[in-house]
Amino acid sequence: MHERFVGTTVTEVCAMADAALRLTTLAEEVLGAPLPLRVRAWDGSESGPPDGPVLVVRRRRALRRLLWKPGELGLARAWVAGEIDVEGDLYTALDRLSGILWERGPAVALPALRDPAVRAGARGLLRLGGVLPPPPPPPEEVRRHRTGGQHTRRRDKAAVSHHYDVGNDFYSLVLGPSMVYSCAYWGGPEGTLEEAQRDKLDLVCRKLALREGDRLLDVGCGWGALAVHAARGYGARVTGVTLSREQAAHARKRIAEEGLADRIEIRVQDYRDVRDGPYDAVASIGMAEHVGEVRYREYADRLLSLLRPGGRLLNHQIARRPEADESAYRVDEFIDRYVFPDGELSPLGRTVATLEEAGFEVRDVEALREHYARTLRAWVANLESSWRRAAGLTSPGRARVWRLYMAACAVSFERNRIGVNQVLAVRTADSGGSGMPARTRSWSERPPG
To answer: Which of left, alpha, beta for 138 (phi over 0: left; psi -120 to 50: alpha)?
Structure first.
């Protein structure tokens, strides 16, 4: 017997022989189309198209995960556990798989067992993967039942901690020295990530028309990059709020080193508890995705109440495409379980409408979709170049979560499945005055000098 079968029963050997061919055949029967990736199975066999990346199924346990959680979540658990992997270009693999995971919709992701092809596929997976109980989820998965009702203060704090308290050293590897965790603003094909993030921070400050002495509220202030830029470059007095203690600690240290402690205050505080308005400007950069649709009007009302008449809001937010039937919309299970617990994306039109319903006048919308795809690719490159250290700072599973999440998001932006937009809005005065220039896009021009 071949050494790879030592200690394995005859029945198991028969089940494993030519496992890759059996897997691709099963997949094609269920999908009704050829599998777009080559497969290499745990027995060393390969099957599928000879060109491009290879989907490596390292352990039979991955099949049991798919049996118990068909579709996206089962695949995600197997990926995080290291039971499946991709050899070759990850972006190409995800782009090819997107036709299965996205375009074919939930009917494939959550197959109906009454479909004969699906039933046959399940039986085939049982023979290949075994009938043992479902493997436990990887420890990186969120256990939400302990954290209260959705979008309560307690549960929001737990969700933010899960995502942002991974460790500042880990984030510095991924994000680079700027520690800016949102879409950069690329000026052309050349330029570094640091330059693009600096330009994004400057764009935000110019859209908000910050001047010496203005009060800026930075909602979801992260590691303090915008606060430092606004205080140092524009003379603003900044209050930053975050629910992440690790972010706050890093931001305070950075502010002290910059000599800006007299201009910036960082609080570990829920934005709903801010009471010291009015502010001249509010920036919400990559924070509204955590708010949730049930709280979005409350979010808009709160930010409006914190602004003086004529004060501006810059809302920078990822948006999904609207569904033909909005009741059919479902949250991405991988993102919800492993990345952003309770995070929700809204269509851009709904965001604009809610801000207007709250009393804001929306003055400008700028789409930055292509900018975010390039930013994510830069972050993935940073992670991959420091892989051993990144896995050591967190866990191999957590590092795998981040690699898949960022690469998949890059493909989603490139395929126009999601976008990201900066919405500039103003709280008009009682007289209707906005204080806005007639030519609103003047900030797009770089300032002299």
So the answer is: beta
Q: Does 118 map to a domain? A: yes
Across 154-272, the runs of DSSP E, i.e. the strands, are 215-219, 237-242, 264-268
Please give the Cα distance from 4 to 53 (Å, whole number).
25
Residues 277 and 412 in one domain: yes
* Whole-Å CA distances, 93 to 33, 191, 265, 408: 16, 27, 45, 10
Tally of residues, the chain: 449
pLDDT band at 9 (very low <50, low <70, confident <90, very high): very low
Task: Yes or no: say if 311 and 208 are a contact pair by the CB < 8 Å rule.
Answer: no
pLDDT band at 5 (very low <50, low <70, confident <90, very high): very low
Could you tell me the strand order of the sheet in which 54-57 lies? 46-47, 38-40, 54-57, 84-87
Q: Is 292 helix (H, G, I), strand (E, B) or coil?
A: coil
For residue 407, the surrounding DSSP H or E stretch is: helix 396-414
Task: Give the pLDDT confidence score for residue 148 in this predicted structure.
Answer: 57
Instruction: Report percent pLDDT > 90 for the chain.
Output: 61
Does the residue 74 lie in any domain? yes
Q: Render pLDDT for 344-389 as a digit per residue (tens, 0 to 9).
A: 899 999 999 999 999 999 999 999 999 999 999 999 999 999 999 9
186 and 100 in one domain?
Answer: no
Q: Which of 48, 30, 31 is CA-nearest to residue 40? A: 48
Q: Which domain holds residue 124?
A: 3-129
Let me know if 388 is exposed, middle or buried by CB neighbors in 10 A (0-12, 13-18, 19+).
Answer: exposed
- 434-444: per-residue pLDDT in tens? 888 776 676 65
**Residues 257 and 336 reside in one and the same domain:** yes
Are residues 344 and 257 part of one domain?
Answer: yes
The 3-state DSSP class for residue 209 equals: coil
Dist CA 86 CA 96 (whole Å):
12
Higher pLDDT, 4 or 245: 245
Q: pLDDT tens digits, residue range 105-129?
A: 433 333 444 455 555 555 665 666 6
One-letter identity of residue 393: L
* Tally of CB atoms within 10 A around 343: 17
Q: Are residues 216 and 328 in the same domain?
A: yes
Q: Which runs of E-coded beta strand occur in 12-83?
A: 38-40, 46-47, 54-57
Tally the domains of the chain: 2
pLDDT at 286 over 80: yes
Whether residue 111 is preceded by a cis peptide bond, meaning omega within 30 degrees of 0, is: no
